């Protein structure tokens, strides 16, 4: 009952968003590192495809790649403004997914019966 499609999709989303937060933190910490290329995380396309084709959301993959955006003179392509906005967006999405998981558990608790 707990391991339904919705819960599994939320679990994948939380894992993907957590991975994105780690990569963003890594990007920011390497802002001045010569030849460092910013990392990017994608899980949404794989999760969307899994849901659209009827596969289990748990089969969705979380992929990390390096950005191919142009680099500065030192070979680094981290743009602090983009990382900051992406970090805020990721945090808000993570909070939304956690709220959805909590709402699902509240529904289950109410279905089980009174306290």
Task: Explain how this protein is built.
The mean pLDDT is 94. Helices cover 58% and strands 7% of the residues. Strands 1-2 form a two-stranded antiparallel ribbon. The chain contains three helices and two strands, in the order H-E-H-E-H. Helix 1 packs antiparallel against helix 3. With 115 residues, the protein is mainly alpha-helical.
What do the pLDDT scores average to?
94
Percent of residues in beta strands? 5-15%
What is the general shape?
elongated
Instruction: Give me the Rg, rounded.
Output: 18 Å
Through-space gap between termini: 20 Å
Instruction: Give me the secondary-structure category.
Output: mainly alpha
**Domain unit count:** 1
Low-confidence stretches: none
Put simply, the count of helices is 3
Q: Please write the string of helix (H) and strand (E) elements.
A: HEHEH
Main sheet attributes: strand count, strand direction, barrel closure: 2 strands, antiparallel
Features:
mainly alpha, 115 residues, two-stranded antiparallel ribbon, elongated, 58% helix
Task: Describe the structure in brief.
The protein is mainly α. Helix content is 58%, strand content 7%.
Give a topology summary.
Blueprint: H1 5-29, E1 39-42, H2 44-52, E2 63-66, H3 80-112
Antiparallel strand pairs: 1-2
């Amino acid at each position: 009952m707990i391991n339904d499609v919705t819960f599994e999709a939320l679990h994948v989303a939380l894992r993907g968003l957590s991975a994105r937060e780690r990569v963003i933190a890594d990007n920011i910490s390497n802002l001045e590192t010569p030849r460092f290329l910013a990392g990017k995380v994608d899980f949404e396309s794989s999760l969307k495809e899994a849901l659209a084709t009827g596969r289990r959301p748990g089969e969705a993959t979380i992929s990390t790649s390096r950005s191919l955006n142009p680099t500065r003179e030192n070979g680094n392509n981290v743009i602090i403004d983009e990382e900051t906005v992406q970090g805020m967006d990721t945090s808000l999405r993570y909070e939304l997914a956690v709220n959805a998981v909590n709402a699902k558990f509240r529904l289950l608790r109410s279905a089980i019966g009174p306290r």
